[in-house]
Design brief:
Purple Acid Phosphatase, chain A, domain 2, about 15% strand, globular, disordered N terminus, binds manganese (II) ion
Length: about 400
């Protein structure tokens, strides 16, 4: 199977010609952080109280999980409910108009909820391997591809800003080369002007991946026929999605882990290491975040797609529970106590890169980096280059949505 994918380097060259991106002034100053604690009205709890342990999904710690290569869009790997139909619908993929008979559609029609992705948590080395297997590579490393990885904040339909950011990052911070991988923190759609184009664009780029955001999940629900959402004017764009787009969205994982060995690799130039940063643990990309002190395999779907704040909870010293559990998800309607940005109390050891908090803006903590700098609100689209840990951003074209 071949995918219609443009290489990053070709893309970069085209963009350079059209955007004239400037390398002046890498951003080190961003909007002042707002300490508002309001939640987005569009927050969606997807299978909200279900953790991966309960759902039977494999976790990043699972050896078995890491040893099975997959591809997000084309995996024919097994699921509990729909393996043969997913493979079938992908083989029968029809560009353009929706037929509402993909396996994801059939699942939704029966269960009135979106199915879990085949892999809730994936490892970058595995999904890269699967992506590369789709094309003839002659076993050679592409000279125009570096070992660096770019992670991009919440795009929300801002396609032009996305293209400009990747072009600028390649030109200014990656010697004009393509990145080994581009990973988006989710919320590709809604609010901005080009939601379906962003989804298709990201899906078609070689070695680009995304985790699932609350807006991606809500849009998927609308695209599958949820009346409450699909009847809203703000979801008019979902009619532009193809069956393949919808199937791809249904396979977006909740986390993408970048193993630390990929972060600590030397660059292709043997005389200089890629970065002065060394990584003692993996990097995890997630849309919203985690509750500190809770094991990764115990983190809930709602947490990973919607958390902004936690609240400190009393610890019973006589409890056999782990004394690490000092925080819980802050729900503004139910929780008491003072909300704290989860990233401020996340002590690693994994570096977590996330989005979902435009009001707070860029967050740059030792073990957590929040990239949502409000691209759709007329502010900036921000990315981070790893392992260098270098921030890069572009200005928004305009205010696409009210904050
Ligand atoms: Mn979000």
């Amino acid at each position: 199977m071949t995918k219609a994918k443009k290489s990053n380097s070709v893309l970069t060259l085209i963009l350079l010609g059209t955007l004239g991106s400037s390398c002046v002034a890498f951003e080190t100053t961003f909007q002042q952080r707002s300490r508002s604690t309001n939640s987005s009205p569009n927050d969606v709890a997807h299978n909200s109280r279900l953790s991966y342990k309960e759902s039977g999904e494999l976790t990043p710690q699972s050896h078995d999980f890491f040893t099975r290569p997959i591809h997000l869009a084309t995996s024919a790997a097994t699921t509990n409910h729909n393996e043969s139909a997913i493979s079938h619908s992908l083989l029968m993929k029809a560009a353009g108009a929706r037929k509402y008979n993909t396996n994801v559609d059939l699942y939704f029609q029966e269960h009135h909820t979106v199915p879990m992705p085949t892999r809730a948590h994936v490892s970058l080395d595995n999904i890269l391997e699967a992506d590369n297997q789709l094309e003839t590579r002659n076993g050679q490393m592409d000279d125009q591809t570096s070992e660096r990885i770019l992670i991009v904040g919440d795009v929300h339909g801002c396609l032009n800003e996305l293209k400009a950011l990747v072009a600028k990052a390649s030109t200014c911070n990656n010697s004009d080369k393509a990145f080994k991988a581009v990973i988006l923190v989710g919320d590709l759609c809604n609010k901005g002007p080009h939601s379906s184009d962003v989804i298709r664009f990201v899906r078609e780029q070689k070695n680009w991946f995304s985790v699932r955001g609350n807006h991606d999940n809500a849009a998927l629900t609308a695209a599958l026929g949820d009346k409450k959402r699909s009847s809203k004017k703000s979801y008019g764009w979902i009619k532009n999605l193809s069956d393949e787009d919808v199937t791809w969205m249904s396979q977006l994982p909740y986390t993408i882990t970048i193993p630390k060995y990929m972060m600590n690799k030397d660059g292709s130039n043997a005389s200089s290491s890629l970065s002065s940063h060394t990584y003692s643990d993996n990097v995890i990309v997630v849309h919203a975040g985690f509750v500190p002190g809770v094991a990764l395999e115990e983190q809930e779907v709602q947490t990973m797609t919607t958390i902004r704040e936690v609240v400190e909870v009393e610890v019973d010293v006589n409890s056999i529970e782990s004394p690490e559990h000092h925080y819980s998800y802050f729900d503004k309607h139910q929780s008491e106590g003072k909300p704290l940005a989860w990233a401020q109390v996340w002590n690693g050891p994994e570096l977590v890169v996330f989005g979902h908090d435009a009001k707070r803006g860029l967050q740059n903590e030792k073990y957590a980096i929040g990239l949502d700098s409000g691209a759709c609100y007329g502010k900036r689209l921000t990315g981070i280059i790893l392992p260098d840990r270098r921030l890069v951003s572009v200005e928004s074209e305009k205010i696409h949505a009210p904050l």
